[in-house]
Structure prediction request, 287 residues.
Amino acid sequence: MASVPGCQSQGGPIDPRTRKAIPAGARVGRRSRRPVRRPDADRRCPKLVLRTRTPRAHPLTHAYRPRHRVQRVAQPADVTPRVDHLRDLARRVASQHLVLADALYAEHVAGLWQYARTPQGDPYEAEEQFWEEAVGVRRRAAYQLIALGRLLSKLRLTAADRTALAAVGLHKMDLLVPILKRQATIRPVRGWIAVAQTCSRKALRERVREALGRPGRPVADHAAHVQAYLVNAMPDLESRDLAAEFFTVGATFTGTDNAVAILIAAMQETLGTWSVHLAAADEPRNM
Prediction:
């Protein structure tokens, strides 16, 4: 077969792929039969034509920014009336939540869920199911409203005080319930309502913690994280206070403030007690 056309060297033709001289009489494979690039002026090596690649724009550059940008517009003249309108609507909704809190607490005490029936005629398995399916209130919100209704039943607020409490907003009422439950008199209640109207939720939370003697502290270790998670996971304020008291008494009983150690000691104590009761309950069945 004929030699591959290409640049010539002193030893013979050059393979364009390997840039090496081809021995005399050697056959060239099919893959080598490709057009050879045109040599340059010195006829020693092929002239390589490099293609220029278009650089791709980085996603964070201006080429990928959204075309529609928020334009700074002039402030309308009716901003204040519109804000006052939204605030008034929120105040009306909050006042209705106070009414709902009174009703939920009254029916919680009466045990209405035990007598109510599902659309299929079956009784509700738990009060939480009754709140969510029959009333349409999530269980966490129902617990908060019931705690608020219990507080309102003890305070006997006037219409003006209820209006002021409604003006605080729902996002601050749940923070006021623990401190108002401890200071259930008219004067402290009015003082805390005034504080809530002037403070943000974060500042109000810190002031309530200080008043309750529970200053917020950063979670430093795993055991403290477990304790904080378990206390905050309680569905209502009463069970939250119960969990906090559990760890307080457990620290005194075990001699350590490690929440994991307190839980292990409580599990051992509880399992021992439960096992005795279960064994005693199974004895009449085996006789």
User: Anything to note?
Assistant: The longest helix spans residues 79-110. The chain has two domains: 82-216, 220-287.
